[in-house]
Amino acid sequence: MRNTILLFLSITCIGQFATLAYAETQLANPLLIDMPDNTAKDLGLYACTDSDGVASEYCQSITDYSGFTYDPNRHQMLMFGGGHSATYRDDVDVFHFDTLTWTRAYTPTPCSQMTLSNFDVDKRAWISTGQPRSRHTYDQLVVTTNTKELLLMGGGHTEGGKCEQVSQYPAGGRVGHYNPDTKNWTFGASFQDGWTNLASAEFDPQSGLVVIVDDSSLWTYDPVTKVKVKIINHNVNNFGWTNNLVYFPPNGMMYYIARGNPTQVFEINLRRNAWGSSTITLIDGISGVIPDTQESGFAYDSYNKIIGGGIKDGKFYAFDPLAKTWTERVINTDPSGSSIGTMRFHAIDYDPVNNVFITITGPWDNVHTWAYRYASSNVAGAPNSPVNLKVNVQ
Predict the structure, then answer these.
(1) What mean pLDDT is predicted for residues 96-110?
(2) What is the pLDDT of residue 377?
(3) Is it the case that residue 342 has pLDDT exceeding 80?
(4) 4: closest CA among 21, 24, 19?
(5) H helical segments located in 23-123
(6) Are 155 and 136 in contact (CB under 8 A)?
(7) Nearest to residue 153, comparing CAs of 200, 113, 107, 111?
(8) pLDDT at site 14
(9) Is the pLDDT assigned to residue 126 strictly greater than 60?
(10) What domains sit in the chain, N to C, each tagged with a CATH number?
């Protein structure tokens, strides 16, 4: 049985009424589409294997200081991470909304091939497979809609633990371009002489560029030409690192959510016609229950027009940039009585088809994937809201 969401949008033009004959068909999962508000559904243990094919808790550390991102071109989540003292697996893990499970896109580089002689210093990748070395990816995974690729914008530290052939590989690295259809990696501009390893990145659909921000500068990267450009230097106090950058379509701004107590939010005004005039401003006067967050993740909920995430001790946090308000919700769980706990680092993103966040939570011995719905009642009059949302069962 298949559920299909049909989105019909009507557009009223100034001086002329016109109806856009638009019916975008997307697949929705029947287990998710009727979820109650403020509820997290347990999708089961996160199952995986290490590069040698052995199932273990160790391979679950792919989320350590890392996360995943939504692929709107193919309706899936894509994850890449590990590195340092975490797993050495260098596969892209794919979350499928038809089965609600994760599967690896390709075979990881074997541990036996992770040697200095097999290491491409310039690309920071393994020569034998062409796959980038495992690493902490922080908030540096981006999916583009112009080239339809997953971009690995940086990340640092050595290859994953339990497989180190030498104590430290030479520095280097280029932006990784992954094609989910061909399952091949290519490489773009070097990031070693650009932003830091602890930067945050986000795709800007207005310009078709990736925006990267670190503790002292703002950059753009063109996924088509593979050219990076420094836009501005900044001296914003308490900006921090390994935080989260989120694009907010209602006003075209980006928001940088900085961990700490209290969590601070910076508004990034991108002057796309004069990039050098872009500004970064700390938002004052924020109300509501402001979270105390460590390294965590946030994503834009296009149905409710909020930036949400930061799940900690069973609580979800939502920020409304227009109202300058934080909201805290104690999460209801399905099955009732289960505990969602705290999310693993940056492991969260939002699926607009099912109107749910997907996240991974829990300690190594009990890592689970969850789907969470903030609300099913859309904000009245919000821009870009779908009209006549229907679910057809075929």
Answers:
(1) 95
(2) 67
(3) yes
(4) 24
(5) none
(6) yes
(7) 200
(8) 29
(9) yes
(10) 3-393 (2.120.10.80)
Residue 356's alpha-carbon distances to 28, 126, 171, 205, in angstroms, are 11, 36, 39, 21
Question: CB of 163 within 8 A of CB of 111?
Answer: yes
The count of other CB atoms within 10 Å of the CB of residue 341 is 18
Copy the structure tokens of residue 72: 């709107």
The owner of tokens 């996240």 is 359
| Straight-line distance from the first to the last Cα atom of the chain, in angstroms, rounded to the nearest whole number | 6
3-state secondary structure of 80: strand
Number of neighbouring beta carbons within 10 Å of residue 122:
12
CB 372 within 8 A of CB 316: yes
How far apart (Å, rounded) are the C-alpha atoms in residues 249 and 305?
9
State the Cα–Cα distance between residues 290 and 378, nearest whole angstrom. 23
Q: What is the pLDDT of residue 94?
A: 98
How many other CB atoms sit within 10 Å of the CB of residue 274? 7
**What is the H or E stretch that residue 269 is in?**
strand 264-269
Which of the residue ranges 29-43, 55-69, 166-180, 235-249 would you say has the lowest mean pLDDT? Answer: 166-180
Q: What is the mean pLDDT of the chain?
A: 87
Here the tokens at position 140 are 């540096």
Residues 6 or more apart whose CB falls under 8 angstroms from that of 181 comprise none
The residue type found at 295 is E
- Whether the CA torsion 59, 60, 62, 65 is positive or negative: it is negative
Q: Which residues pair with 67 in a beta bridge?
A: 80, 346
Q: How far apart are CA 168 and CA 172, in angstroms?
A: 12
* Nearest Cα to Cα of residue 194 among 237, 226, 224: 226
Q: What does the CA dihedral 36, 352, 89, 343 come to, rounded to 10 degrees?
A: -40
- From the list 246, 245, 253, 244, the residue with the least C-alpha distance to 206 is 253
Strand 387-393: give its sheet, edge to edge: 23-28, 3-8, 387-393
Output phi, psi for 301, to 5 deg. Answer: -95, 105
Structure tokens at 91: 């596969």
In the chain, % of residues over pLDDT 90: 70
Is 82:160 a contact under the CB 8 Å cutoff?
A: yes
At 199-214, the pLDDT tens digits run 999 999 999 999 999 9
DSSP sequence for 9-31: --EEETTEEE----EEEEEE-TT
- Encoded amino acid at 214, one letter: D
Q: The tokens of 146 are what?
A: 């112009």
